[in-house]
Each structure stands twice: as C-alpha cells, then as structure tokens.
Amino acid sequence: MFNKKKYTFRGGTHMNEHKDTACLQTIRLPEPATVSIPLSQHIGAHAKPIVQKGDYVKIGQIIGEIESGLGCPVHASVSGTVKEIVTRHNAQGTPIQNIVIENDGLRVQHESIRPRTAPLEEATTEEIIDIVRNAGISGLGGATFPTYAKIQSAIGKAKTVIINCAECEPYITANHRLLLERGQCVIEGLEILMHALQAEEGIFAVEDNKPDAIEFLQKAIASKPKLRVCVMRTKYPQGDERQIVYAIYRKEIPAGKLPADVGCMIVNAETAAAISRAFFRGKPLVSRIVTVAGDCVKEPKNVRAPLGASYREVVEFCGGCIKEPKKLISGGPMMGQAQWDMDAPVTKGTSALLLFSEEYDRINTYHSACLHCGLCVSNCPMHLMPNYLAQYAQARRYDDAAKMDVMSCVECGTCSFNCPAGVQIVQYIRVAKGALRAKR
Ligand code: SF4
Ligand code: SF4
Q: Fewer CB atoms inside 10 Å of the end CB: C or N, the chain?
C-alpha cells in the first residue's frame, strides 16, 4: 500500500497506543451556555482585554489583543454578551484574566470573517504572516508557540516545510481524525506555508499506525510533485521536532538551535488546517479537536469544542465518568499537564483530556534507588544520561547537571516511563532546568 521505507530515530520507546478513538468521527460539542476564554493560551505576553462587561461580541471578534512583543490575539468563540472579566489560575498556578461570555446560541459571525477571493499565488509572505497572526494561531500540538513568529524565524532558512502528523502520544487521535475528515485543509495549510517561505519541498510525517491517513494523503498529493509523505515507524517520541528531522534527514539540530537552522519548518497538522481556514475562509482560531479518553470516561470521543468550554462540559458530553478519576490530564499521558479543576477551560493547547482512575496511577507504586541498569540512557532520544541528571538534580548540583547538558532534555518522559526502579527522572530534570533558568 505505501512505500516500505520507514523513518525512525535512535532511542525512544514502544508503548501501548490506546488509540481506541481513531475510528470515531469527530463530533461538535453542543453550544455551551457560557465560555470562559483565557487571555493567555500561547507562549508569550498575555493579551489585554479590549471588551468590557456588557459588550455584545460575535464569533471571531478579537476580545484580547497583544500590546507588544510575542503573542497572539484572542477571539470570541461564541456570540453573546460579556458577562464578566475574571482572574483565574491555570494549572501552573499562574493568574490569567478570562473573558466570560454568555452564549446567545445564535452563532453570529463577526463581519471580518469572509472568504478570500484572490489566489494563493498572489499572496505575499507579509500578508500570510499577518493573516496567521490576526487569526490567533499558535501551535496546536500542545506547544502553543505563536505560528506567525515561527514563520518569521524560518524566512530565508527553511527550504522544507514538514507537517507533523506523528501524534506519537498514546490515546490522542485528534490529528488522525482531522487527516481523514479534513485532510484537504491540512494539505492547503502546507501549501500556504511553502508559498510564504518559498520552500522547495513539503512533507507529511505520519506514523505507520495511521495507514488510512497515509493512503488518503498519498492519493491526494499524487499530482503534486513537491509534496511527499514520510511514513515514520510508530515509536514515542517520534512527534518531537528533533526526532522528525533526524528520522527524515539523519541531521541533528544542534543544542539551542531550531529546525529552521537546519533548513526545516515543522508545524502540527491541526495548526496547518487552522492556517488554511484563516487564509481561505477568513476564520480565526476559535475551536479545536480534543480527544477525550482514559479508563474513567464512559464514551471516549474526539470532540470539536469551542475555546473556553469547560472540561466538565466536554467530559459530560462523553457520557461523564464511570469511575472516580484520580488524575485529569490536559494533553497526552507522557507530556501533558495534570489538572486540578474540571471547570478549567479548553484552550489552544488542549489536544486531549484524559481521565484515569487509581488503577492507572503508577506514581509511588514502587520506588527504589537507581539500579544502574542503563535503560534510561539507551532509550533517551536526546542521547543524554538521565540517571546522572536525576542524581545531580536530587543533590541540587545543578551546575553539574548543566555540564551534562540537562537543558537539552525535551522532557519526553521516556526515561521515567521505563525506569524499573520507578525513579521520577523527568521530574528531577524539570526541577534542575527550572533552577538553572531562574539562575540565568
Ligand atoms: S532506568 Fe532507572 S534504574 Fe535504570 S539507570 Fe536509569 S534511573 Fe537507574
Ligand atoms: S532525559 Fe529528557 S529527553 Fe531523555 S528520555 Fe528523559 S525526558 Fe526524554
């Protein structure tokens, strides 16, 4: 069915994929009565509110704008009245202003949303960057880096644009469904980025556990000689940008450098689709696909949710919980973030909501000192010595950890996942990285 050559990287781990929702059509969440839209859903400066309590807002209207520096504007995801502007704490404890909108259910779209009439060939790089910025698009794979800034930093450097369709974390199938249901939008997004950067080649990097998506893409791009599909061996963390570049080109991105420094720009599949919607239909980013799964969820699903809908509403739409959840994670089980509030809102970074019972909670079930088995070393995709990094962090010898390149750790969690002694390696590494950042 597809080319036998499969791309991969050194290290990493195979794990139970739990991709049970891959065969389920994405379903739109019924209109929530209210949404609570945080003014920071991206890396960079927090947006400032430009609406007030009592204002009427329409879908796609800018309600928060960046005053200066890196960041994305924030848009209303429903039409209705601004009920209040409140400060809420996110999962990291950072206070963030939220604009709460009472939904009138009329789905009134803002006048700025209109389809483009001019062809892509006539668009300039600056125009594309403006469209992506004004649409509030940031990396939807979970990193939430503003996409317009990524394009800017790749100008004159990136000859290849890679669409990251690896989706290597267990449970998450949002990109897989997107490729099957709206694959054309993802292809258009790639072509827009290639045009903006005058890139010579476009690649879809897809893991081999999505044969139907690979088949769709190969057929859809058959007449486009600049585009190709690279089938990646299913292995975690294949979706990490550095592993994608290494798997395809056998090139390592030097520490502290970006994919653009080795000639590539990489964006997630859903981000590419959002770029297409913004460019051709004038639609800003106001919703995203969320995979809802885990042993506590009655009916796991892929849900298209408006930004600002609460986790509770999304989970209830999936039949609610059949067991008491011990852990709620936003994102994948390896790199996602534990959450403490079911009333927290879906944001641009919420690729999944996973609810696990005590049975699935590995923490503290077993724990001993390092056995020096070397498993973490052989599995580390960044070729680090995680065992030593953890020991230095435990001893607060952060400078020694820095000498062993702790800052290159991508926090994939592969080391902790496989450690037979249950050492929480990545947690120690995070502490060391945080301490070094604070010192700098
Ligand atoms: S995998 Fe765990 S036990 Fe083995 S060397 Fe690494 S830290 Fe030590
Ligand atoms: S040390 Fe960092 S990069 Fe290496 S396996 Fe552990 S978390 Fe991943």
A: C
